[in-house]
UniProtKB/TrEMBL annotation:
Domain Disease resistance protein At4g27190-like leucine-rich repeats: 267-391
Protein name: Disease resistance protein At4g27190-like leucine-rich repeats domain-containing protein
Leader sequence segment: none
Keywords of the record: Plant defense
PANTHER family with a match to the protein in the record: NB-ARC DOMAIN-CONTAINING PROTEIN, NB-ARC DOMAIN-CONTAINING PROTEIN-RELATED
The keyword Repressor belongs to this UniProt entry's keyword annotation: no
Pfam families reported for this sequence: LRR_RPS2 (PF23247)
Organism encoding this protein: Salix udensis
Domain of life: Eukaryota
Record bears the keyword Lipid metabolism: no
Amino acid sequence: MAKGETIKNAVRNWMSRADGVILEARKTLEDDADPNKSRCQKESFKGMTALKVFDQSDIISKGDPYFSRKLEPGFSYLTSLRTLIIKNCRIAAPDAIGKMKMLEVLSLANCKLLDLPQEIGELTNIRLLDLEDCHHSRQKFNAIFPPNVISRWSRLEELYSKGFSFPELEVFKIAIRGSVHHKQSNYLEVCGWVNAKKFFASPSLACVKPLLKRTQYLKLSSFEGLRTIFPHQLADRDGLAGLKTLEISDCADLEYLIDSEEWKMPPKLKSLGFFKCEKLINVFASLELMQRFDGLEEVSVDSCGALEYVFNLKIEKPAFEEKKMLSHLRELALCDLPAMKCIWDGPTRLLSLDNLQIADIQNCNKLKVLFDTCVAQSLCQLKKLLVKGCDELETVVAKESQRVTVDIVVFPQLVELSLLYLPNLAAFLLG
C-alpha cells in the first residue's frame, strides 16, 4: 500500500490487477428472476479453504435493488478469507461473517442491514468496515451494533458509513478503554478540522454529541476559527458531565476558555491543558471563572506565545464572595511562554495551594518572580520544583511589600529542587 493511500483505495487498485485466489460473483437478475437461484450453495464452499477474496459487488438488479436472501451458512467454510465485498443485498443476521476470523476488509456498501450478530465482534483482525449507503431497520445508525463490539476491533483503521459525513475531517481518533495511553479513559480526539464554524454547523455533529456525554478525555486539535472551547454548539449544559481531562492543541485562533459566565462547567474536570494556542492571552480571565474550576488538579500551558498570565485574581465585582481557590491543584506546568510576566495577576490572598506537589516552569523569559511570600507559605506539600531557562527571573520567592513581616519560608516536603540556566537569578528569597 502506497504511503498516504487508504485501505479502501488500495483494495480497489489491487482488485483491478490481482491474479491471486479470488472468487467473483457476477450476475444480472431480471425482474421476474428467482433470487434463490443466485445463492451460493453450502456445499460449493467446502473446497475453498484457501480463498482469500470474495467479491459480490457486480450483481445488478433491474427490479428491487435489494435481494431477499441471507448469507449462506457455507460462508463459514471460508476461514482464510481476508476480503469480503457484498453489495445490493438484504442481509439479516449474517452469523457466518463472525466465523471468518482472518477477515481484514468487509464491505457491505448499499446493503440493507438488520441487527448485526454478537459474533461480528470476533473479527478482531478487521481493518476496514465499509457501510456506505447502507440502510437499516433502526432509526439510529449505532443501534445496529451489538454492545461492546466496536471496542474489540483494536486494528480498525477505516470506518465508512452514510451517517458519518465530516468532509474536511482529517483524523477522528477513538482510543478504546484498555489502550496504552488512556487505560482509564473513554477517549475522544477530534483534529484536523479546517474551519470550526463548519464543524459546529455540521448536521453530523449529532454523531459526536452522544460520545461527549460519556467522554472522560477530550482532545481538540488543529481547529481554525475556534475562539472559545465551550461554545453553545458543542454540547448542552450537561453534555460533558463525565469529562475529567481536556486538552487543546494547535488552535491558532483560540482566545479564551469560555464565552459565557452562566455556562455550567464539567463538574468532574480535573486536568486542563493548552499547547500551541498562539492567541491565548490567559487561561482564567476572572475570579468567577476560577471558582467554577475549583476541582482542578492539573494545569499545563505550553508554547502559547501571547499568554501574559494564567490566573486573574483581580476582584472586579464589589459583591464578590471571597473564598480560597485552587485548593485541589496538584501539578502546575508552564513551558515556552515568552510573553508571560506573571503567573497570577492580582492579589494572591485568595490562593490556597496547600495541595500543590509539582511546579514545572521552563522558558518563561519575562517572568521575574515565581511566588510571593503569601503563596510560598501555603506550599506545604510541594515536592518538586523545577525552574529552567527563565532569562529575566530574579528570585523564586519575593515579599509583597517591605512593610510586611513574614515567617521563614519553608517547603517541608520538598525533595527535588532544580534551578537551571537562570542568568539573572539574584536570590532564592528576595526582600
